Amino acid sequence: MSRRTKFLILSYLICGSAYAETEFRVGGFGTLGIIHSSNHLVDFTTDAKPDGAGHTRNIDAETDTLAAIQVDAIFNDQLSATIQVLSHENNGSGNFDPVIEWANLKWKITPNLSIHLGRMGLPAFMVSDYRLVNYANVWARPPNEVYIQAPISHLDGISARYQHPLGDGIFNTEGSYYSISSKSFQNTTVSGGGSMLWNGSYEEGALTARLFYARFNLSNPDGSTPFLNVLANVPGSGELADHFFAINEKGKYYSLGLLYDPGKYFIQGEYAYRNMDKGFITTTYSWYGLVGIRRGKWSPYFMYSDLRSIGPFSDPVASAMANGALGPSLISFGYAISQVIAQRNQSQSTAAIGVRYDLMKNIALKAQYDHIQLKDGSYGLYTYPRSQTTPAGNANVISLNLDFVF
């Protein structure tokens, strides 16, 4: 447990003990999910997890499965605190070790203005406030094409939030100064020390619109230097090596979302753009559209999502190896570098149909079928074993979920 996490928990306990009239509220949520993928060459995963359904497991019960408990403490009309503990498998170990997902203090300065300090959810998407509360969403899981572009669910920092009536609706805005615990994604360490974000939304009746902007830092992972040195010495690859070299390089992320939900039907969509000037992580743009209806306890829906990666994808290393320009001692590095270059192209689309059935109060069953189609030359968003060195092709994915809240 990090020092920052210990401090957040200690602050929570101290505040609770300082107010004898503290009101506590306890709740939680979870998902029991299984996934089958028709493509056994690679794994279908979410949130950049190292394994999943397909190659590693025929039936995967780890990718979507999670459980969480949340405790809210209301000390008085101005001061409150929240702590959320989440248990899910996220490192390929098969263990569901609990982590502190949220741990923050809220100071309500005025009815419309509040300050939040500690660990909070990353408000990058339409469903950021309940991204992991799958019961609150109609789908089996958020579309990978959009949501994996920002695979970090929380941040540590300070946030100011303001809401104000506007017309017949409510305008909400948030500005944050934050850091992100380092996370490996697409051969890059993502961190966010001293970074900033802005989030704004407008709600009026059945309509919700949302805008988001964030800036964060990128660094190559430890151990990447030998690969970059080899790349720099391959004829014609100096520019590419310079592009991959990233130490505290700035990345930017923008997203726009719209939801219209009058009750009997719903329409939702998001567009996201991730801009990376340097590093292994690619610049991407992605979007999805979701439509569905509600008929009693049944909610059938259709969703289409698309992701496009922007190069460079040229591979001078492969050409050098084919021409014998790379010495025998560097061949193993050459193959590894070629794979890194090739797998940066993640362009793919997914067409999904599904249905939600509200089994009883606070419990829902979901079934979803996804057809994943890779673009020409793309490796998609799969997790590749070392034995698979070429694009794995399309996949059909079937998911069954039991979602609950309490």
Describe the structure.
The structure is a single chain. With 406 residues, the protein is mainly beta. It has a single domain (30-65, 104-405), classed as Porin. It is 13% helix and 49% strand. The strands form two sheets. The chain has a 16-stranded antiparallel barrel with strand order 1-5-6-7-8-9-10-13-14-15-16-17-18-19-20-21. Strand 2 and strand 3 (53-54) form a beta hairpin. The model has no long low-confidence stretch (mean pLDDT 86).
* Helix fraction by DSSP (H/I, runs of at least 4): 10-25%
Strand content: over 45%
SS-derived structural category: mainly beta
CATH topology: Porin
Count of domain modules? 1
CATH structural architecture: Beta Barrel
Number of helices: 6
Order of helices and strands: HEEEEEEEEHEEEEEEHHEEEEHHEEE
Using the CA coordinates, give the radius of gyration: 22 Å
Query: Would you state the CATH class?
Result: Mainly Beta
Mean pLDDT figure: 86
Task: Record the strand order, biggest sheet.
Answer: 1-5-6-7-8-9-10-13-14-15-16-17-18-19-20-21
Q: Could you name the CATH homologous superfamily?
A: Porin
Rounded to the nearest angstrom, the distance between the terminal CA atoms is 27 Å
Biggest sheet record: 16 strands, antiparallel, barrel
Please give the number of β-strands: 21
Pick out the low-confidence regions. none
What is the overall silhouette? globular
